[in-house]
Amino acid sequence: MTYLCICFVFLIKAQQVPIYTQYVFNKAGVNPAASGTDINQTINYIFGITRTMTAFDNAPKQNFVNFSYTIRPPRSYHYWQNVGAYIETDQSGVMANNNVYASYAFHLLLNKNIIMSLGVQAGFRKFLISTSLLDANDPVVKKTNSYTYSYPDIIPGFRLSSKKFFFDLCARQLTVIQQKDIIKKNGKQVGGPSYLNPNIYIAYGRFIPVSHDFVLLPSIAINNAILSAPNVDVNVMLYYNNLFGVGISARNTNFIGGVFQLKLLKNLSIGMAYSHSINNLSSVSPNSYELMIGVTPMGLNTKFTGNRAIARCPALEF
N or C: which end of the chain has fewer CB within 10 A? Predict the structure, then answer.
């Protein structure tokens, strides 16, 4: 129980937004501007799960599903649009939140190589507390509101991308800053108000052709909550042709791990990540896992050719 309380306090204070090791695979989930950047993929569908510090009871867990549809203009391909929906659940100990968003992205071809994208997610967050894990005889628990809503939650995003690089910029918790406390007694608030810190997400990656069949993708993602230390993820992936990719990852001085991504079918890819704790939790809960599956009826079957071309990989066009 002591460990659970320690993790609960840490996560509530330092991690109020979801963080993924495979942020390139789930690019539309971390930045709405990245949804539908490939004009040839009319329909995109991806879902995934994350299980952190699995040795603990009621350890942190995340689930998400994302669906989007690309709207191509009848003649001009200088711009296109994408609409979709994103649903996410995040649970840690007695606390959980469910997020539901509608998404829209506008993509503009600046020249034949660079795409500028603007996107937004708009929806609500439902914060819950599991009273089954608390003392049912506590008079405060008996009169607890088990959930509360925060809305409208609007997430703007910006992206520049090409076959050589990508740059993401996204802001979260700008419109939802203070939430009503869940626990009340006789209609009165118990404790102080709860705050959601504004969060800035920045990511950059570079596609480096190694040979005709191999491409190297080093990338970095920074989740920076105001008044908190940033979470910095560094990934280095090596992709072979259209078939699979392997890589290593690190997050601050907390986790190191490996990533494996595989194209199973013409339109089906899977990504798996394992993270090992290297901080003080390593002796009691060293293991974290992440699984993502993406279905794209179009795309992932084209190989760029030429000495300086970049082969598509299972993660780049979700």
Answer: N
> Which residues are bridge partners to 132 per DSSP?
none
Rounded to the nearest 5°, which phi and psi values hold at 84?
Answer: -175, -170
Closest CA to 298 of 35, 41, 82, 68: 41
Task: Report yes or no on whether pTM surpasses 0.85.
Answer: no
- DSSP notation for the chain: -HHHHHHHHHHHHH--S---TTTTTTHHHH-GGGTT-STT--EEEEEEEEE-STTSTT--EEEEEEEEEEE--SS--SEEEEEEEEEEEEEETTEEEEEEEEEEEEEEESSSS-EEEEEEEEEEEEEEE-GGGS-TT-HHHHT---EEEEEEEEEEEEEEE-SSEEEEEEEESSS--EE--S-EETTEE-SSPEE---EEEEEEEE-EE-SSSEEEEEEEEEEEETTSPPEEEEEEEEEETTTEEEEEEEETTTEEEEEEEEEEETTEEEEEEEEEE-SGGGGT--EEEEEEEEE-SS-S-----STT-----TTTT-
Q: How far, in Å, CA of 271 to CA of 268, rounded?
A: 10
Query: How does residue 24 score in pLDDT terms, banded at 50, 70 and 90?
Result: very high
pLDDT of residue 194: 67
In CATH, the number for domain 2-295 is 2.40.160.40
**Tens of pLDDT along 67-106?**
999 999 888 779 999 999 999 999 887 788 899 999 999 9
